[in-house]
Hints:
This protein is an alpha/beta fold. It has helices spanning 3-11, 17-35, 45-57, 100-107, 150-158, 174-180, 214-224, 256-261, 265-280, 296-311, 330-341, 344-357, 363-383, 408-413, 419-424, 453-465, and strands spanning 38-41, 69-73, 111-116, 163-168, 183-186, 206-211, 251-255, 284-288, 389-393, 428-435, 441-448. The protein starts with a helix and ends in a 7-residue tail after the last helix.
Amino acid sequence: xxxxxxxDMLRTKKCSARELLNDVMERAKAxxxxxxxYVTFNDKAVQAAEEADRRIAAGEDISLLxxxxxxxxxxxxxxxxxxTCASRMLExxxxxxxxxxxxxxxxxxxxxxxxxxxDEFAMGSASDTGIFGAVRNPVDKSFSSGGSSGGSAAxxxxxxxxxxxxxxxxxxxRQPASFCGVVGFCPSYGSVSRYGLIAFAxxxxxxxSFGKNVRDTFYLHNTINGYDIKDVTxxxxxxxxxxxxxxxGLRIGVCAxxxxxxTDAEISDALEAALKEMEKQGAELVDISLPSIKxxxxxxxxxxxxEASSNLARYDGVRYGFREQNIVSIADMYKRSRTExxxxxxxxxxxxxxxxxxxxxxxxxxxxxxxxxxxxxxxFERAFEVxxxxxxxxxxxxxxxxxxxxxxxxxxxxDIFTVPASMAGLPAVSVPCGRSSSGLPIxxxxxxxxxxxxxxxxxxxxxELTGGAAWQ
Length: 472
Ligand code: GLN
């Protein structure tokens, strides 16, 4: 059921928050062995649900999310509740504070169900690089849920949570949403506070929202967004408005380079069918060009790894995190704690990032990547002179088979459709738009102007209303 239906049931006492939580947790536990979405269940959830019931009964000023079960990706800090980043490094870490997004959810009366499985430190695309094992896709268990926010996406798809928070650095909310057939929204950089989100690549990291439909996702995003004094990059303006779903006159940019790069016929067909539906409702299609996106994957992996190598330097076995006990010197402790504490993918990125920042190579790699990022941003600015929103695929394939590992570089290359919006800090959503012949969901990506978060959600809502993804 959607959030508004559930909120209505809670208000009219057709069910209590406690009962709703019970239902969701029963479902979560039933699918846990198969899907592996949860890393930790929140043992204070019942207390939170009871508090929500008390607030509803007392007729207090409550929000739509009061009593609604929400799952949180395990790289978003939750006070008193283990937050592991799916890494041995933080396996036993219990944060002394909560992320601002979590605080806002709790203030709204949402019930935190638990912490969701992911790729280690959010580095990956199949939620299979972490210490807790892969997350399976509820639609087809031989496939990955996608990643890195796989646990969050799969839990919403499977009814093991009503809503979920994830993080998106280069596509980690949009891609798993597309794979699991749910809505995943990556807001403008700066519209949701990053305070308490454990850093991967600070200039790219964003907290995103998952829901079963656009409206649910909109409610979640609009609960957590807004200025926060604890994040200097958070933005003051509030562009909030209601969803109308109006597509008439909306100029949708179709990017020649992206359409060309989309070699899977089922994905381009689904995308074209979605565009036709939107055109029928009065939207206008315009051809646009984003020439610089051809370099975006390379630039993204240079910049994100450079920032990761710096951010992850803090895990030295001293202040917190994993510490190897069997050591001969302080240098040995650093080395062995990091060797044992991090997995292969994280190490690969730390090494790559350290290399591209090193003297003599920095000009050739890091600085060129930064100028590429600027060109991508400029390309988008020009495109938005002639269109209001850009439609694109989310991923070149409809899914990633779990037991059929592809080389890391191929996995990186497949981020081609999600990293451009990441590099430019633009809001982007994935909304279900069809299925492959084998039944795997396909997402439509809509990218908007900086801070036009709700316009992006509104366009997605307009598409959803056409019934184009009626298979759901
Ligand atoms: N697949 C991308 C990566 O591995 C995206 C990760 C993310 O957005 N956290 O970096």
